[in-house]
């Protein structure tokens, strides 16, 4: 019997399922369940996820899970939620609805809109792989411009999908949802944080996760993470977060990448690199640039100027540093022994050292009781740990430096 | 037990409320609307403690009750016509997941052309879904079938959805005196819902899984097997009903004047009342005519039908539904019951009353006369002769075989 404190929740979505190598959806689900924990009931629309995770009698789901049809994951979730409400368990159990982009934004959209409008206490997650992957890579309403799918094939008189991606997060916002966010499987901590945040809020929530489909996108399975980072670094898929209709965070782009770099890794865009394709790539670059301008995605260090939308930064600061947290202390020098006292437990602040600098992670939602991912502990020098981290050290840009480590 | 003068829909709503459903979801469609309205009113006034979910479609109404039932609570939904058709996919799914959902179909015609009046094409079109279907003759029976529907559906040997069908307007909007039992009576007949399995973090189960050819066939066989077994269970539930409520319950078939009948009329729903009146009259003229009311259309009670009809010379089926391109569903299924059996009554099939056309005493007499002359495969009754039907020169002279 594994005790609660040491239990590894990574396996709430068990291995042994039949997802393709490099599948961004299966990675996302694993991260979602790890963040959500056991006390949930999940619903699922028809699609890859249902097929690869529930081949009777083997189920990858270590949490209660129901798949009904393609278009009703949101209304089945509404029924689950109503039953929990009727039996007085709505405060104990969270409900998560799940679908691919087709099940969420196309065939299931009526049910989803109804669920949102009625205000059910449900987090709906769209694993957005930008096509109908399960049926053989057909175009969906969330397929991006220029993508060649089996029903929007590139050809002599076609550049692939002729329409821009449906903006589902903003449609969600129009329903007055208290929480809407986008993330990408390339940013597991961002994903983790957003699932936890969403589940801490009552009412209807929407999270859209960029989740690669190496088979449908025709990319090397080793590129799942790099592509799911590049899509963010180009501005094509901004990582955004709205609370009560206000944009509270927009992940900054450190060094802007050209869409070219993102597109050329994927077979679905390979036709754009032939004669005349540069004009199409320019259109996609324009989509990325428009996102960067709209959401203020360029960070100060990269552009040499302040981000265009100050309110976004300010709002973000208010989230990462709640009013109750102490004001930024003056830079001081710590010995390893002194640092050890700041272990985040019993009300102590949580400090960590990295490459000689000491950072305050007390108010980070990724650190709870001085622990990060049940593995890394505050009060220590984590320079070595960072080498093995699935994120880069720019994650520390988001927390305050409070001192330096004495050699 | 109190007698109340109620509209059919109100009687259904009162019965549903006495069954204490915890989640109700419904979408407006004529002529079903009065049932959800009544229930919404009860919830709004605290008379009924249930979660009321105002869904955006019938597809979602069925999906909400599916999700709630899987979470372990008693549920209710109702619809008509296009709404039942929109639920079709979900009804298959509910049956496939073996969830004891109870729903009411207020029978109405199907588009196009749009027609809001009564026939039974909507529920008949759902015959292959795995939903148990019960048809009411009058509003008392409609209400009584609701209590029984929950008992049948929730019986762990059944675990299938049950749909109670009543004719739109003819019953749903007709005022009749209905016996409404006390809550204590209903509680003793219908214990609290004890789900066989449910969605619960304490014991995480997977519902609605993916299944390959090596096992799927067995799931269908199991539903078929349950359907066959459920006839006995439905009869047991009816006996229990009689004991507790003190009035007869007919949940499979009802025989009226069939003991010595050489001709037996077969029908479902409100038209049976007319058959009974007609039989009374014909009997007073010395004709040995009887009526078989088919309450339970799915499962189709083959043995009961065979035993009740086998001594008749003529069986005359009148139905408010048709399988376009073939004929009347009840007549054709009845013929297959007698296939290869020693007794072979002549089974005639008539389609009548589609889209709310009145079925009259004259309709019944015409059917009997035609059937007595020679067996009729499929014939539409009461076709108008004053309408020009494009491409048809002589509608009255229909093909016999």
Describe this structure in words.
The complex is a heterodimer of chains A (407) and B (401). By secondary structure, chain A is α/β, with parallel strands linked by helices. Chain A is 32% helix and 17% strand. Chain A has 15 helices and 17 strands. Chain A has helices at residues 24-36, 48-53, 73-86, 101-106, 109-118, 168-174, 188-200, 214-217, 224-233, 259-263, 277-295, 300-303, 310-320, 336-340, 383-387; strands at 40-44, 65-67, 94-100, 122-128, 154-155, 158-159, 179-184, 205-210, 240-243, 246-250, 332-334, 351-354, 357-360, 367-368, 371-372, 376-377, 400-405. In chain A, the strands form four sheets. An eight-stranded mixed beta sheet of chain A has the order 2-1-3-4-8-7-9-10, sandwiched between helices. Chain A has a four-stranded mixed beta sheet with strand order 11-17-13-12. A three-stranded antiparallel beta sheet of chain A has the order 14-15-16, with no helix packed on it. In chain A, helix 1 (24-36) crosses helix 7 (188-200). The longest helix of chain A is centred in the C-terminal third of the chain and has 19 residues, at 277-295. Chain A is globular, with a radius of gyration of 22 Å. Chain B starts with a strand and ends in a 21-residue tail after the last strand. Chain B has 401 residues and is of the alpha/beta class. Chain B has two domains: 2-245, Thiamin diphosphate (ThDP)-binding fold, Pyr/PP domains (Rossmann fold), CATH 3.40.50.970; 253-380, 3-Layer(aba) Sandwich (Rossmann fold). Chain B is globular and about 65 Å long. In chain B, helix 12 links the parallel strand 15 (346-351) and strand 16 (379-380). In chain B, the strands form three sheets. Chain B has a seven-stranded mixed beta sheet with strand order 3-2-4-5-7-6-13, sandwiched between helices. Chain B has a six-stranded mixed beta sheet with strand order 10-12-11-14-15-16, sandwiched between helices. Chain B has helices at residues 8-18, 34-44, 58-70, 81-96, 121-124, 139-154, 183-189, 213-245, 271-284, 302-309, 329-338, 361-373; strands at 2-7, 23-26, 51-54, 75-79, 102-107, 132-135, 162-167, 175-180, 206-207, 253-256, 263-267, 289-294, 296-298, 314-319, 346-351, 379-380. In chain B, 39% of the residues lie in helices and 19% in strands. In chain B, helix 1 (8-18) crosses helix 2 (34-44), helix 1 runs parallel beside helix 6 and helix 7 (183-189) crosses helix 8. At the A-B interface, strand 1, strand 2, helix 3 and helix 5 of A face strand 3, helix 3, helix 4 and strand 9 of B.
């Amino acid at each position: 019997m594994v005790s609660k404190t040491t239990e590894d929740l990574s396996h709430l979505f068990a291995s042994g399922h039949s997802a393709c190598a490099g599948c961004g959806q299966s990675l996302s689900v694993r991260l979602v369940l790890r963040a959500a924990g056991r006390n949930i009931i999940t619903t699922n629309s028809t699609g890859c996820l249902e097929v690869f995770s529930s081949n009777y009698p083997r189920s990858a789901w270590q949490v209660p899970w129901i798949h009904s049809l393609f278009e009703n994951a949101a209304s089945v979730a509404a029924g689950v939620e109503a039953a929990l409400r009727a039996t007085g368990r709505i405060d104990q159990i969270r409900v998560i609805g799940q679908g691919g982009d087709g099940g969420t934004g196309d065939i299931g959209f009526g049910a989803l809109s109804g669920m949102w409008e009625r205000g059910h206490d449900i987090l709906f997650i769209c694993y957005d792989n930008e096509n109908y992957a399960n049926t053989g890579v057909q175009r969906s309403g969330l397929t991006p411009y220029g993508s060649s799918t089996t029903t929007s094939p590139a050809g002599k008189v076609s550049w692939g999908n002729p329409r821009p991606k449906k903006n589902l997060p903003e449609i969600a916002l129009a329903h007055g949802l208290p929480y809407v966010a986008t993330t990408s499987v390339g940013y597991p901590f961002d994903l983790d944080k957003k699932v936890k945040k969403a589940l801490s809020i009552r009412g209807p929530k929407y999270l859209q996760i960029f989740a690669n489909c190496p088979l449908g996108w025709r990319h090397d399975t080793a590129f799942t993470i790099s592509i799911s980072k590049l899509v963010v670094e180009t501005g094509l898929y901004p990582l955004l977060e709205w609370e009560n209709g206000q944009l509270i965070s927009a992940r900054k782009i450190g060094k802007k990448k050209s869409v070219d770099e993102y597109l050329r890794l994927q077979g679905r865009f390979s036709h754009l690199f032939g004669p005349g394709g540069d004009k199409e790539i320019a259109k996609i670059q324009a989509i990325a640039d428009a996102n960067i301008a709209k959401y203020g995605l360029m960070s100060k260090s990269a552009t040499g100027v302040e981000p265009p939308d100050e309110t976004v930064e300010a709002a973000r600061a208010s989230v990462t540093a709640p009013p109750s947290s102490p004001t930024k202390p003056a830079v001081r020098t710590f010995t390893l022994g002194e640092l050890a006292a700041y272990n985040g437990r019993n009300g102590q602040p949580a400090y960590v050292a990295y490459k000689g600098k000491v950072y305050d992670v007390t108010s980070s939602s990724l650190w709870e009781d001085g622990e990060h991912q049940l593995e890394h502990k505050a009060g220590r020098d984590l320079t070595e740990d960072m080498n093995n981290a699935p994120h880069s050290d720019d994650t520390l840009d988001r927390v305050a430096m409070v001192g330096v480590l004495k050699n | 037990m109190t007698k109340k003068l109620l509209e059919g829909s109100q009687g259904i709503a009162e019965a549903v409320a006495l069954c204490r459903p915890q989640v109700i979801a419904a979408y407006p469609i004529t002529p079903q609307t009065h049932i959800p309205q009544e229930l919404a009113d009860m919830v709004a006034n605290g008379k009924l403690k249930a979660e009321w979910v105002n869904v955006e479609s019938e597809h979602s109404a069925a999906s909400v009750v599916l999700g709630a039932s899987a979470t372990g609570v008693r549920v209710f939904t109702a619809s008509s016509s296009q709404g039942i058709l929109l639920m079709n996919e979900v009804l298959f799914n509910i049956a496939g997941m073996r969830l004891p959902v109870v729903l009411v179909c207020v029978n109405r015609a199907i588009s196009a052309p749009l027609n809001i009046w009564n026939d039974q094409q909507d529920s008949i079109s759902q015959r292959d879904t795995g939903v148990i279907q019960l048809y009411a003759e009058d509003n008392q029976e409609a209400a009584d079938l609701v209590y029984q529907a929950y008992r049948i559906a929730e019986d762990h040997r059944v675990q299938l959805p049950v749909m109670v069908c009543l004719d739109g307007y003819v019953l749903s909007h007709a005022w009749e005196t209905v016996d409404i039992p006390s809550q204590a009576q209903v509680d003793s007949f219908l214990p609290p819902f004890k789900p066989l399995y449910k969605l619960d973090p304490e014991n995480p189960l997977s519902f609605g899984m993916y299944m390959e050819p090596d096992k799927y066939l067995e799931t269908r066989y199991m539903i078929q097997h349950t359907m066959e077994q459920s006839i006995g269970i439905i009869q047991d539930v009816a006996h229990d009903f009689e004991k507790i409520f003190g009035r007869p319950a007919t949940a499979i078939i009802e025989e009226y004047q069939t003991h010595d009948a050489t001709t037996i009329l077969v029908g479902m729903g409100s038209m049976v009342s007319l058959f009974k009146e007609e039989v009374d009259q014909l009997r007073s003229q010395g004709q040995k005519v009887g009526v078989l009311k088919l309450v339970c259309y799915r499962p189709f009670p083959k043995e009961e039908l065979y035993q009740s009809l086998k001594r008749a010379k003529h069986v005359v089926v009148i139905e408010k539904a048709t399988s376009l391109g073939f004929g009347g569903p009840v007549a054709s299924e009845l013929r297959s019951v007698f296939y290869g059996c020693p007794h072979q009554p002549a089974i005639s099939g008539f389609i009548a009353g589609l889209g709310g056309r009145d079925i009259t005493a004259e309709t019944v007499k015409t059917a009997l006369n035609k059937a007595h002359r020679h067996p009729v495969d499929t014939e539409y009754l009461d076709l108008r002769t004053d309408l020009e039907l494009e491409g048809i020169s002589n509608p009255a002279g229909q093909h016999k075989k």
